[in-house]
Amino acid sequence: MIFLRFFVGVALLMPLGAQAHEVYVSNERDNTVSVIDSATWEVTRTFPVGRRPRGLTFSKDGRRLFVCASDSDAVQVIDPDTGKLLHDLPSGEDPEQFSLAPDGKTLFIANENNATTTVVDADTRKVLAQIDVGIEPEGMAVSPDGKLAVTTSETTNMVHWIDTGTLQATDATPVGQRPRHAEFTRDGRRLWVSSEIGGTVAVIDVATRRVIETIGFEIKGISGDRIQPVGIALAEDGRSAFVALGPSDRVAVVDTESFKVKAYILVGRRVWHVAALPGGERLVTTNGVSGDVTVIDAGSLKAIRSIKVGRYPWGAAVRPVAGVRSAGAAE
User: Fold this and answer.
1) pLDDT greater than 80 at residue 317
2) How many Å apart are CA 310 and CA 306, to the nearest integer?
3) Chain-centre distance of CA 143, in angstroms?
4) From which residue to which does the signal peptide run (predicted)?
């Protein structure tokens, strides 16, 4: 009976036929990465990494995990199956976020302390370029066609556009105060950029480099200075954007056509980032102060589960588990 109840509970949490995934979460204060199994929504293991891990992403084949160890001044390459460090990549000072180009090997890394974007070939472990951008760069994104990269500079309050062919900065777009995260739409036509202190999200037309919409947020009972947008996840169907609103402890759901807020979802304390699982049915948030991860159901726009991880979880990346199907999946 206990087993049956457990099985039914897991089946309700996972969509029918969904593949199991692993969610990797960087814990800033513990210098670790926690791994969550989406079939059970439990932490299955935790392994040590460099100091103050923040951004993280996977290689295309899922066999390498890249971690920005900010205070170690390195991008670490880790075997996700064992948690063992394979090697460090040269990254420049204080790497915070990075983006892997569609070619699967070129990493664009934002270096907060020296106002540059470092470009590294992950296969040869060579620095291809260091590009001057604005002061305190953090957000980093590469367009779906691989032709453009962008860096957001927190102090300069700009988005810097980089030609990936020449590895030169070519343009800059002013946005709100302290831009933190950048996300291209799947068609590459628009760029979404959060401004933490400005309390807004800018939507930029990529062709013209101009802001076409500035989205503000209002939450009943929450003062404006606690609404601090950081992470953004765009839904697979392109209809919604999920925006982490920092110490307001909410995620805003924005209609990408009307730019209107559809819902605010209460999650853990000091939400940093949002990551969507493949298929779009579930999202996860990293909640720094409460030290947990919230699972969001995209259909009902509700938080359905909280999972304790390490101290001050910051970033999240999702990897499919090859050959594994979640409980309740069709055979």
Assistant:
1) yes
2) 13
3) 15
4) 1-20
